[in-house]
Amino acid sequence: xxxxxxxxxxxxxxxxxxxxxxxxxxxxxxxxxxxxxxxxxxxxxxxxxxxxxxxxxxxxxxxxxxxxxxxxxxxxxxxxxxxxxxxxxxxxxxxxxxxxxxxxxxxxxxxxxxxxxxxxxxxxxxxxxxxxxxxxxxxx
Length: 140
Hints:
By secondary structure, the protein is of the alpha+beta class. It has helices at 3-14, 18-29, 48-54, 58-61, 66-72, 89-96; strands at residues 33-38, 43-46, 100-108, 111-124, 127-136. The chain has one domain (3-136): PAS domain (Beta-Lactamase, 2-Layer Sandwich). The protein has six helices and five strands. A hairpin with a 2-residue loop joins strand 3 and strand 4 (111-124).
């Protein structure tokens, strides 16, 4: 990975509120695939279990805007079309400040893959700081 990408990832981590830092620590140690979004909807971290779905470590990818997440990962319907925002758990958690759950598809390392995802808003004393999304492949 280029040194500038590594520096950008480290700088983004250093500028995060305490709630996101603590959530990142939690996400790092769980075996369930998880994403962390900041309050603006940027993907600011994902764990090793999520990297297994995506095929790349977070340090290789870095922080992604909402638009970049949509273009690179999804979420998508079964035909590969973008889901409306009101059906995306991370968007619901961030905009409505409530937990949300959905089943949808993502661009995974192995192609279009169905997942189930649950999102929780990260709210602290000073307000909304982001959302944590955990996901898994459903049992067939």
